[in-house]
Amino acid sequence: MYQVMLVEDDARLADLVTEYLAGYEFKVDVVSRGDEAVGRFKAAPPDIVVLDLMLPGLDGMVVCRQLRDLSEVPILIMTAREDSYDEVSLLEQGADDFINKPVQPRVLLARLRALLRRAQNKQPSDMLVFGNLSIATSDRTVTWRGEPCVLSNTEYKLLLVLAESAGTVLSRDALLKKMRGIEFDGLDRSIDNSISKLRRKFDDAESEKIKTVWGEGYLFSPSAWG
Predict the structure, then answer these.
(1) Distance between CA 188 and CA 158 in Å, rounded?
(2) Could you give the residue ranges of the DSSP H alpha helices within the chain?
């Protein structure tokens, strides 16, 4: 599930977009004022931003520039303007694409998917990023909420195996084979112990980031890392 931050003061349009995208595994966080957008972005970084231009509190063009200074997150502008000068200005401010109002939901969905694919292709092949979690396989560094996270060798290997199979349930047997090349004998509790340690280090007391699927194994939830 992808996280979308929709900055739009038209409540009816925001509800329409939220309801439509929910059917395609997009979770939408609506911000109705331009001067609240940056704070919300910092608190809960999304996978993509959909940004209106005409906003109370702060103009959409200014918001676009401020967000781009913070992140390379894809920014899709919704605009009722047809001025090519505005489009050029927004590209210079860091926007990635435009969609005209009135918004056609299917077109919006297609644009979002295209921008997300483009963003994924731009990521370094040695970097896994899930919200506030980054794993660099080249130097085995892990960053959580902007700070380095110190992991043991076993914890790092387990986190990497889980992250590389994000969204897929992995049994203890599968985890041990990927980590050590051995099979689970039904007695080895090292996986469970390491899972508990990872949860503590990543504030996962509710087991939302690394889920336990009873009778099957563990699942790394890609959308739960904020």
Answers:
(1) 15
(2) 11-22, 37-43, 60-70, 84-93, 105-122, 153-164, 172-180, 190-201
> For the chain, what is the radius of gyration of the CA atoms?
20
| pLDDT tens sequence across 49-61 | 999 999 999 999 9
Separation CA 143–CA 126 (nearest Å): 14
Tokens at 88, concatenated? 């050029």
- Amino acid at the residue 224: A
Alpha carbon dihedral 180, 181, 183, 189, in 10-degree steps, equals 0
| Rounded CA separation 84/96 (Å) | 15
Per residue in 78-131, pLDDT (tens digit) is: 987 665 556 667 777 788 888 888 999 999 999 999 999 888 776 555 889 998
Q: Comparing C-alpha atoms, which of 89, 103, 7 is closest to residue 56?
A: 7
Residue 184 has pLDDT above 50, yes or no: no
Cβ distance 208 to 131 under 8 Å? Answer: no
Q: What is the largest CA-CA distance in the chain?
A: 68
AA letter at 159: L
The answer, yes or no, to whether residue 187 has pLDDT greater than 70, is no
At residue 17, does pLDDT exceed 50?
yes
Is the peptide bond between 102 and the residue preceding it cis, with omega within 30 degrees of 0? yes
**Whose CA is closest to 203, among 149, 158, 156, 167?**
149
